[in-house]
């Protein structure tokens, strides 16, 4: 790897019309000291790839060690300085019409330390992006937009704040319970009680895991799973009646199935079938 690389994008008018675009990206083996009282005009991500640095933001001083980084909003006053020799960092700056919405909707923490496991994709960003930095015009525009969006998704998936589990760790913990639901959703007698017994944890803990990973309670997930399975039957087997499908996906009666389907899909099962 080079001692330093920096890719300054040629941001065109078309690029600026994209939901999100890359402005700069680079790696420093020996990070210089920076003091930006007025902040930076784009979103700014900085992560440590070696050594340690001291970062000051909003009158708060934090240490950035390996496998740690920080995401700053535009114009956020900050400064940083090496605490070791050398302090190596990778950075990316980005913006776009929907950048604030994307950062917010993903629930990404700003102005605070984000950590990740050493083996995650975030650990190898600085090496994977080196080849991109050597390209001339190829990485501008849509490719750059796709890269920064994938980076933010990885930050959502692997990032940990305040020693909390990452999204990927929650997902891994939840997968056996998801598979158990897949195996039992067609049983109308199956519900939260059976799931809690199988999980071997409290209903409160199970609810927390589901909400952190899916945004739903376990019961809501089960109902949506039943509706999703019913949509497959409605499309793939036109000979099955709505009443038969209701029974196949775990509803005790067709009227409850139709009511639930309409509530979730804003149309009846028959209308959904006719449209597909």
From TrEMBL:
Organism: Paenibacillus monticola
Gene3D superfamilies linked to this entry: Homeodomain-like, Regulatory protein AraC
Keywords in alphabetical order: DNA-binding, Transcription, Transcription regulation
Protein name as it appears in the record: Helix-turn-helix domain-containing protein
Domain HTH araC/xylS-type: 175-275
MF GO annotations: DNA-binding transcription factor activity; sequence-specific DNA binding
PANTHER family found in the cross-reference section: ARAC-FAMILY TRANSCRIPTIONAL REGULATOR (PTHR43280), HTH-TYPE TRANSCRIPTIONAL REGULATOR EXSA (PTHR43280:SF2)
Keyword Zinc: no
Keyword Glycosyltransferase on entry: no
């Amino acid at each position: 790897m080079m001692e330093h690389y920096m890719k300054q994008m040629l941001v065109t008018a078309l690029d600026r019309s994209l939901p999100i675009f890359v402005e700069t990206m680079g790696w420093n083996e020996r990070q210089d000291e920076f003091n930006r009282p007025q902040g930076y005009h784009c979103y700014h991500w900085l992560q440590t790839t070696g050594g340690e640095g001291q970062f000051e933001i909003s009158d708060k001083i934090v240490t950035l060690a390996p496998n740690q980084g920080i995401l700053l909003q535009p114009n956020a006053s900050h400064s940083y300085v090496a605490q070791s020799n050398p302090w190596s960092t990778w950075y990316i700056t980005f913006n776009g019409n929907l950048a604030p919405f994307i950062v917010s909707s993903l629930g990404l923490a700003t102005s605070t330390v984000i950590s990740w496991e050493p083996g995650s994709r975030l650990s190898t960003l600085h090496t994977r992006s080196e080849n991109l930095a050597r390209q001339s015009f190829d990485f501008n525009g849509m490719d750059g937009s796709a890269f920064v969006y994938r980076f933010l998704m990885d930050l959502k998936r692997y990032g940990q704040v305040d020693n909390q589990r990452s999204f990927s760790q929650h997902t891994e913990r939840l997968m056996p319970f998801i598979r158990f639901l897949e195996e039992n959703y067609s049983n109308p007698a199956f519900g939260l009680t059976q799931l809690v017994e199988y999980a071997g944890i409290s209903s409160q803990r199970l609810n927390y895991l589901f909400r952190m990973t899916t945004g739903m309670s376990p019961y809501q997930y089960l109902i949506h799973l039943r509706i999703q399975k019913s949509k497959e039957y409605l499309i793939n087997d036109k000979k099955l009646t709505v009443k038969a499908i209701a029974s196949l996906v775990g509803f005790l009666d067709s009227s409850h199935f139709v009511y639930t389907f309409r509530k979730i899909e804003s149309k009846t099962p028959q209308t959904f079938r006719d449209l597909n």
